[in-house]
Amino acid sequence: MTAIKKRSDCPISSSLDIWGDKWSLLIVRDLIFSMQCTYGDFLKSEEKIATNILATRLQMLESNGIITKLDHPESKAKVLYQLTQKGIDLLPIMVEIHLWADKYSTIPPERNAIINELKNNKEAFLKSYTKLLKTASIQK
User: Fold this and answer.
1) What angle do CA 43, 46, 51 make, to 5 degrees?
2) Could you tell me which residues come within 8 angstroms of residue 24 by beta carbon, excluding any fewer than 6 positions away?
3) Considering the domain 11-139 in this protein, what is its CATH number?
């Protein structure tokens, strides 16, 4: 794991040093809701991440144990990225960001099902989705 120079010993600051920039959170978002992605999948996201930033963020997330690289089953030229347990443990944070955004922003229609499920029973969603993410990581 690459040592990151910490700004302080504050747990929030230390955590943000690892996953707190915009692009890293969007990569984690894509992995949470797609389970696994290729480099090309990340490039296709509507936020239009630049290739140099994507490469840097993927390397940083991997070196900090948030994601792992796997061989692609259909192409030796491609790599699959997947969350580790440490990355899966970011699910509750992503859920809270969704709920906060629902309160203060306009949510795209394709996210409404998740928001409604979270509002109905957040704990059940977290439990079942965490299990789903773990199962996806075991299968590869």
Assistant:
1) 25
2) 18, 57, 60, 61, 66
3) 1.10.10.10
End-to-end CA distance of the chain: 22
* Chain center to CA of 42: 11
pLDDT confidence bin for 85, thresholds 50/70/90: very high
The average pLDDT across 44-54 equals 94
Position 139 scores a pLDDT of 57
Could you tell me the residue ranges of all domains in the chain?
Answer: 11-139
Which strands, in side-by-side order, build the sheet including 79-83? 36-37, 79-83, 67-71
Cα separation, 46 vs 112, in Å, equals 18
The span from the CA of 97 to the CA of 3, in Å, is 27
